[in-house]
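Lecture 7 notes: from sequence to structure.
We start with the chain below.
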Amino acid sequence: MFENLLSLLGHAKTYQTPLPEADAQHAMGALLVRAAKADKKILFEEIQVIDKVLAQRFGLNPIEAAKLRASCEKLESQMPDTAEMTGIVKDAISAHEKEATLSALWAVVYADGVKHDEEDELLHQIEAVLGVSPKRAKELQVAARG
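Predicted structure tokens for the same chain:
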């Protein structure tokens, strides 16, 4: 009987959830996830900030925001090029929204209370692709730190 069960499990089909389309909404969420993971771990506090940003930015309730984040996590894991993700966002938003996006990214990075060089490096790469000046980006970083 045990062998039959194992043989059935061995032949079970594995279904993968397809990746979400890399539209601006998903690309922004993937960038938020990437910022949270830049220090090689993602903490609950960072997830809370990501969900809050997604809910506010796209008019979602908490469950919808969590579902969007989950699909963005899949996209982030499959999309290695940060510049490409940032470019998708850049082409779809205004200059004001670019600054709001950078502020949101800094809020995620600072959510765990610890600043890591990898996070700083990633966000400076993103600010360059978004076209936010280094001076303005520094102001947004300081404001996010509180």
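Points to note: The chain has one domain: 22-145. DSSP finds eight helices and no strands in the chain.
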